[in-house]
Amino acid sequence: MHKHWILIIAWLLLAWPLAAAAAVPVGKVEVRIKGRIAVDPSGEVMEYRPSVDVPPGVEAMLQSMVRGWGFEPVVVEGRAVTAETGLLLVFDAWDKGGDQLALRLKDVAFGAHEGGRALAPPPYPVEALRSGVNGKVVLLLRVDGEGDVLDVAVEQTSVSDRLPHDRARRYAEAFEKASMGVARRWRFGVRERVDGVPTGGTLRIPVEFFVGQHGSSLAPGPVRQAPWAPDLPTLPAEALAALDSRDVRAVDSALRLIEPVIGATL
Description:
- The protein has 266 residues and is of the alpha+beta class.
- The chain folds into 2 domains: 108 residues, TolA/TonB C-terminal domain; 122 residues, Fusion Protein Consisting Of Minor Coat Protein, Glycine Rich Linker, Tola, And A His Tag, Chain: A, Domain 2 (2-Layer Sandwich), CATH 3.30.1150.
- 21% of the residues lie in helices and 33% in strands.
- The strands form 3 sheets. Strands 1, 2, 5, 6, 9 and 10 form a 6-stranded antiparallel beta sheet that branches. Strands 12-8-7-11-13 form a 5-stranded antiparallel beta sheet.
- A hairpin with a 5-residue loop joins strand 1 and strand 2.
- The protein is globular and about 55 Å long.
- The protein starts with a helix and ends in a 16-residue tail after the last strand.
- About 4% of the residues have low confidence.
């Protein structure tokens, strides 16, 4: 077995208890790595640094992958400039036999919230909790360059399926009120710098309410647009409803890849 495979397996076993039932993961294990990426005026990667400790062999592979990416130049007033932002890498990892581990890039997000502290969760609406009703509210937050929340809007609300329409709407409104109330008090780190200047933007944040089995079936609600930016890119209703609370990311990062990278393997 190659040395870097040993490092990855040891890292997975230490960092992800889900994988600890066997010497190597039997099924797929999702691995999320947050970090920072900086791009020069030509669109080449100047720097990449993970925000978590990873084994040297793993970091070497990550560096090789990320530094091979190309970006559209970030232009401000007709001038190409440097840009730095948060980066979230999501991998599927699994044992492919023969003492080999596979890592495939499943998702990548720029402008992701790194967050030195956890965001305070909203209170669970009492009636929904007593009735065992689950829900998920996907919020859009407009933040300034310092990470303060300026505006909050609901992009989608999903509640437990098989509820009558009037009850579903009542629970949805309760979930929305609780989510928006706490979100206005959240504060984020500086997520992006363009030409050295902190920039604001819009973040998409799923807020989950689950009692009992997490991930139980939800009926996706309609998709709504942020009133401050009606042309922001959105996702299909089913994709929004499938996001989990770790999927905090920017909707409008300045960094744009020239070519797709999803599916790359390490």
